Amino acid sequence: MKKFLCVVVLGLAFCSAAQARILYWQSFDTLAEGDRDLAEAALAEEFGADPKQWPDWIDPMALYAPTGHVDFVFIVRRPVHEPCGQYKFTIYGTVTPDLRRDKWGEFCGGTITPIRVSGKDLPDLMLEETREQDANGIWQRADQRLRWTNGQWWRILSAAE
Asked: What are the extents of the domains in the chain?
């Protein structure tokens, strides 16, 4: 009986450790190989193809956002020097049957938070500290909540939509 309890406790500890990685920004060296390749490719255009040559200050990070299934939406964060926000977030979809992730889009802002939505498989994305240019060319803060529907991102005006 003691051995059984030890196995159960160790199993729960392992599952908790795996779950703890979800929804937390993590460095690229903790990512699965295919996801690490995607993450590095998202930064390659701006910082070069060799991560060993990247400046220390960029602090590349990624996170896994849970879906209603066993898979995750994969989000890569990279710093930018643009008026739209501090980071660009590259969003990759769930793993396809041929074991790849499609790029679902890129957004600029200060933070991004996946939000579980009752009755939906995919999380909404809340972009905060985002700036958009108004009709007069002035950059204004424009936080937004986005939902992936029918193959594209839609701005959600209220959570009930």
From this structure: 23-156
